[in-house]
Amino acid sequence: MYSKDRIAYQPLPLPDRQEVTQAECLSGAQAFRDRMKTRHTLRDFSDRPVDREVIEAAIATAGLAPSGANHQPWHFVAISDPGLKARIRAAAEDEEARFYSGGASDAWLQALEPIGTGISKPHLEIAPWLIVIFAQRYGVNPDGERYKNYYVPESTGIATGFLIAALHHAGLYCLTHTPNPMRFLTEICGRPDHEKPLMILAVGHAAAGATVPAAAKRKKPLSEILTVNPEGR
């Protein structure tokens, strides 16, 4: 975490040390892989409530992510208020209407077709929670002085991955939504100008009869996403 004072490096004994066998390593990796295989991006949400404490615990997990210089350049806004969710939906659909009526290339629209997206975003009101993720371009001290943050997109992306995994581990579903532009989120959420909205996560339980796009289940095989010991050029 950033401090205006000069802080010298101080090594600490490794906390929470894990001592596991090779077999336990493999078992743990496979178990987590299999758990994450059951994660699905969802648009069909139930209005079943989710306790605030669950959302807070998941966001606290996101806050444990590594970040550039440990500056933790992120902020999460959790919204359950129906009025705020309605405002976000209306603004997001306005941007989506522009996107689908000429803002997107034909190739982009063709790529989205198997996913089944469109202008209407009812899930932004039905889902009990929306989490808006902001990346802090720079930090501001209590006295108003700016300081530089490092690797902001990378750090915030890692934290978002932690958050999505935590929500899934809690038994919830989420949908990542990135209307473009997203400036309206800064105003609705009351965040300062130096914070850039990155995405909205709609969070909740699955509705009865919920579906997912068949295309979304086609994942690249390990052979296409992994290279071990490359020979270089």
UniProtKB/TrEMBL annotation:
Protein name: Nitroreductase family protein
Alphabetical keyword list: Flavoprotein, FMN, Oxidoreductase
Domain of life per record: Bacteria
Organism per entry: Pseudooceanicola batsensis (strain ATCC BAA-863 / DSM 15984 / KCTC 12145 / HTCC2597)
Record domain Nitroreductase: where: 37-205
An example molecular function term from Gene Ontology annotations: oxidoreductase activity
Lineage, highest ranks first: Bacteria, Pseudomonadati, Pseudomonadota, Alphaproteobacteria, Rhodobacterales
Positions in coiled-coil regions: none
